[in-house]
Amino acid sequence: MRPFLALDTATEHVVVAVGDLDEPGSVVAHRAFEAPRAANEVLLRTAEDVLAEAGCEVRALRAVACGRGPGSFTGVRIAVATAKGLAHGLRVPLVGFGTSDAVAQRVSWTGLVGVVTDAMRGEVYPALFSVDETQSVTRMTSDRVSRPEDAATEWAALGETVLVTGTGLRKHRTVFERFLGSRAVFAESSVWAPDGPSLVAAAWSDRGDRSLAAIAGLSLHEAFDRAHPGLLLPVYTRLSDAEEAERRRAGLPNDPGRSGVAGPPEGGARP
């Protein structure tokens, strides 16, 4: 077994899983639970517990996989910073995957799946996916932030039934009910956030150059070079409250096109 650790804290859930690079899709151990504003206190301890359950020492890890968001700014930073620290310290590759992708992986459905994650400020992070008869999930849209009315209008214009899921439904379900009408099917709240198996599935489903699938067949040295921890960036889609406040204090105009520290594409220079 070549174990890897997957983690995500972009929602109010702390989610950790151990998978195997030699068995795509397999989940050796996992844990997921709600921990509002407490991810920084429990994430590493949870990772230790899941590794122990898997019978795996941390030094045996051969990769780390991390949910890049979008979601809570603080939650995304906690997961990414923790993943970077582990991967750097162990000198193993770090791969990313979308938190919305992990949510989409939780549903049992054939057709369109719309994930709406709460973005606060009366907004959501919408992402549209297509699920085929084999339950293979394909992303149809990139990550962004929008008003729920705008996302619902776009999905309604498709003229197809959409399974809607995600933490954004807590506040905005009525918007999607109004715009989609009978073409909306709503997932149970128990699957609005990722779980361990869905993290592993999302990590394997990504097909980027620095994805889990891309590095699984490489030597540890080659994989570390290909998916160096310094290359992974979080997905924020917009500036944080503090950054926007700083721009206002500086007299700079609001720029909705700015996406904060990092946006959807992975990349960046190695430190």
Short note summarizing the structure:
The protein has 271 residues and is α/β, with parallel strands linked by helices. The protein has two domains: 3-99 and 194-231, Nucleotidyltransferase, domain 5 (2-Layer Sandwich), CATH 3.30.420; 107-191, Nucleotidyltransferase, domain 5 (2-Layer Sandwich), CATH 3.30.420. Helix content is 33%, strand content 21%.
Indicate the overall shape. Answer: globular
What does the average pLDDT come to?
90
Count of spatially separate domains:
2
Total count of helical runs of at least 4 residues: 9
The name of the CATH architecture of the largest domain is: 2-Layer Sandwich
**Poorly predicted runs:** 242-247, 256-271
Summing up helix and strand content along with how strands pair, one would put the structural category as: alpha/beta
Sheet bearing the most strands, described?
A: 5 strands, mixed
Radius of gyration: 18 Å
Order of helices and strands: EEEHEHEHEEEHEHEHHHH
Question: What is the third-level CATH name, the topology of the largest domain?
Answer: Nucleotidyltransferase, domain 5
- Reading side by side through the largest sheet, how are the strands ordered? 3-2-1-4-5
In the CATH hierarchy, what is the class of the largest domain? Alpha Beta
Count of extended strands: 10
CATH superfamily of the largest domain: ATPase, nucleotide binding domain
Q: What is the helical fraction, as a range of percent?
A: 25-40%
Proportion in β-strands: 15-25%
Q: For the record, give the distance between the C-alpha atoms at the N and C termini, rounded to a whole number.
A: 31 Å
